[in-house]
Amino acid sequence: MTNLPLSTPAPRRPMHTRRVEYRGFLRDDGLWDIEGELHDSKPHSFEIEGEGRWAPNEPVHHMRIRVTLDAAMVVQAIEAVMDSHPHAPCPQALAPMQRMVGTRMGGGWRRAIEQHLGAIQGCTHLRELLYNMATAAFQTMAEVSFATPDDGRPPPHLGKCLAWDFDGPVTEKVYPMFFRWRAPATPQRA
Asked: CA–CA separation, 121 vs 185, rounded Å?
């Protein structure tokens, strides 16, 4: 497989950098910590009227979240901090993050985030970090996430992307018992 670069861009100048990083850990007590960090900066100075002035590369947003999960991917604890934020009310969005305790990372995760932290209940940037924490958790907990459920159903990642197509070669090789699998028909109500 060849790594192909992006095409040569049109002449341009940098205006903004967003760095997002996720890290996953297995704790000694058997729980899992997933940490996310978001950092926004600009290569030039700028001002937000009435809020302040930022030097080149000074973070306008620098936020971190740690979510603690059990093996079923249920949120046991959550912690969030804002090291840098542009507006005085921003830190008020930290307390509502506790509403995510008890929710499960999996189907409906984004819906749960919107329900508990959507619109003016929370912070756009913290929500963005939370959305993709589920993917980082899934990768961190691969031994648990990729295990075949005991009830005969396929693992939840099958049928969710091109590589994990039920009719594809990866599923045939890794999960032959689910190659060409089809969900049972649901009975029609009369």
From this structure: 40
Count CA within 13 A, CB hemisphere, residue 188. Answer: 1
Residue type, 138: F
Percent of the chain with pLDDT over 70: 96
Token pair for 137: 């958790």
With b for 16 or more beta-carbon neighbours within 10 A and e for fewer, the 116-151 pattern comes to: bbeeeebbebbbbbbeebbebbbebbeebbeeeeee
Provide the residue ranges of all domains of the chain, joining segments of one domain with +.
17-144, 149-184
pTM score: 0.84
- Integer-rounded Cα Rg, in Å, for the chain is 21
**From 3.30.390, 3.20.20, 1.10.12, 1.10.10, which CATH number describes the 17-144 domain?**
3.30.390
Give CA–CA dist 36/63, Å, rounded. Answer: 8
The answer to whether 65 and 35 have CB atoms below 8 angstroms apart is yes
Cα-based angle 105, 110, 116 (whole degrees, multiple of 5): 95
Q: Report the residue count for the chain.
A: 190
pLDDT digits (tens, 9 = 90+) for 169-188: 998 998 899 999 998 887 77
**Cβ-contact 16, 40 below 8 angstroms:** yes
